[in-house]
């Protein structure tokens, strides 16, 4: 499995310091990612099934395991940037790390939501 990692500070919190106050959950981060639109398909990355897993630890560090429509997708860096932008103001999120994973390979027939499949003409 080939992987690429990108890590970016999502808020002004100093590295290594715990976050005080309310904290966004993995579900909150996952929901915020619905704002990230794949520019080639015109649908959000959650509905397309590109987001595999989201975790948030007690320090406010989030990890988004996701894929792209193809390993050679030229929009990859832009989508990663949009993931950071969509999550940067969530409460308690300090850092966001995007792990691009290729296993399993993206398959819209099995991974996309019913609404996305309809939009993509897969029904």
The helix/strand series, from N terminus to C terminus, equals EHEEEEHEHH
Q: In total, how many domains does the architecture comprise?
A: 1
Name the poorly predicted regions.
1-16
Shape: elongated
Largest sheet: 4 strands, mixed
What's the total number of strands?
A: 6
- Counted by DSSP, the helix tally is 4
Order of strands in the sheet with most strands: 1-6-5-4
CATH architecture descriptor name: 2-Layer Sandwich
CATH topology: GMP Synthetase, Chain A, domain 3
List keywords for this structure.
24% helix, 24% strand, 123 residues, two-stranded antiparallel sheet, alpha+beta
Report what the structure shows:
- With 123 residues, this protein is an alpha+beta fold.
- The protein has a single domain (3-105), classed as 2-Layer Sandwich (GMP Synthetase, Chain A, domain 3), CATH 3.30.300.
- The chain contains four helices and six strands.
- The strands form two sheets. A four-stranded mixed β-sheet has the order 1-6-5-4, covered by helices on one side.
- A hairpin with a 4-residue loop joins strand 4 (51-56) and strand 5 (61-66).
- The radius of gyration is 15 Å and the shape is elongated.
- 31% of the residues are buried.
- The model is unreliable at 1-16 (pLDDT under 50).
């Amino acid at each position: 499995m080939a992987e690429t990692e990108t890590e970016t500070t999502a808020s002004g919190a100093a590295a290594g310091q715990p976050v005080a106050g309310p904290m966004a959950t993995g579900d909150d981060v996952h929901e915020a990612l619905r704002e990230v639109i794949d520019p080639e398909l015109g649908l959000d990355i959650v509905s397309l099934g590109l987001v595999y897993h989201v975790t948030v630890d007690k320090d406010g560090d989030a990890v988004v395991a996701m894929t792209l429509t193809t390993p050679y997708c030229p929009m990859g860096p832009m989508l990663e940037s949009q993931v950071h932008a969509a999550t940067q103001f969530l409460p308690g999120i300090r850092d966001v790390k995007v792990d691009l994973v290729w296993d399993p390979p993206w398959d819209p027939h099995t991974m996309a939501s019913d609404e996305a499949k309809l939009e993509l003409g897969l029904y």
